[in-house]
Amino acid sequence: MIEFKLANKEDINQISDFIAEINKVEESNIGFCGIDNNEIFHSLIEDITDIPFYKSFIIAYQNEKIIGVLGFDTDFSSNNVEVWGPFIKESKWNIVYDMWGKMIERLADEIELISMFINKKNKRCLSLVENLNFNKKSEEIIFNFERRNISKLLGIPNIELSPIYYQDMESLHDKVFPKTYYTGKEIIERLNNYRKVFINTENNDLAGYIYTEVNPRFGEGSIEFFAVEETQRGKGIGNKLLSMALKWLFTFEGVNDITLCVNSENKKAVELYKRIGFKQTNQLCYFTKSIKNNEKM
């Protein structure tokens, strides 16, 4: 007999181990959920905050063993949820629609959009979103840069964002990323020893910026946003900014590699990342579905 229950705080280790086991296989991989159980443990506690995981994750059991996990990360600022899963044992995939229905019941009334990042090789999930009438928005490439490739980076000094360029950086960010999770002003407010913006200037004018974050405790580093003024593109500024960010991230001993995501249609960015030394690891498909209150009932 299969039982479904809402997760509780004490389930976090079991959930983390189960997701890591399923997600490390490309054919069952969901993007951005992690493949290391410690990383997943950290994400469940630190990143899923608007509605905690123990109020948003459904667990399926058979003979007292986990056979499936499905949940969501809520963002009330955009009335959006990003789905974690479905992570289900291959032989038990027939429970997916029951789990989906139980997850939907947990959504807050404010939620208007569901999003999913699915590995291109995850055929079962791709079939699921087709049957659930999701819309495919884009294909994304996941790139990885390893510490051992530091020698490929440009030997240039890092230039941090200073107050004189705050307004220019805000304007560039909000122009290139008009509807995203941080505005330019919010990025500036977040700056500290573990969150940095590096810039490139031409004739004392801001030509581009890159925003990066690190979590030394877990050996995690990320490049969050990266933009160059349209009139300054094609001059090698992107290479300079990436070199600054990567060199800074690898000053933290526990950071061994950096992963980032780029739209596969952005050919120039793809070529730039490859040229610098990033290696393609996965391809994801990004899907969304608009929902109304009566669909949550």
Low-pLDDT runs of 5+ residues are: none
Strand content: 25-35%
Please count the helical segments: 8
Q: On the 0-100 scale, what is the average pLDDT?
A: 94
Give the CATH topology of the largest domain. Answer: Aminopeptidase
Distance between the termini: 26 Å
Measured as a percent range, the helix fraction is: 25-40%
- The structural class is alpha+beta
From the alpha carbons, calculate the radius of gyration and give it in angstroms: 20 Å
CATH architecture of the largest domain: 3-Layer(aba) Sandwich
Shape: elongated
By DSSP, the count of extended strands is 11
Which sheet architecture does the biggest sheet show? Answer: 8 strands, mixed
Order of helices and strands: EHHEEEHEHEHHEEEHEHE
Name given to the CATH homologous superfamily of the largest domain:
Gcn5-related N-acetyltransferase (GNAT)
Number of domains: 2
Supply the CATH class of the largest domain: Alpha Beta
Characterization of the model:
- With 297 residues, the chain is an alpha+beta fold.
- It folds into 2 domains: 2-133, Gcn5-related N-acetyltransferase (GNAT) (Aminopeptidase); 144-284, Aminopeptidase, CATH 3.40.630.30.
- It is 27% helix and 33% strand.
- The chain is built from 8 helices and 11 strands.
- The strands form 2 sheets. An 8-stranded mixed sheet has the order 1-2-3-4-5-11-6-10, with helices on both faces. Strands 7-8-9 form a 3-stranded antiparallel sheet, sandwiched between helices.
- Helix 1 (12-23) crosses helix 2.
- The relative contact order is 0.15.
- The mean pLDDT is 94.
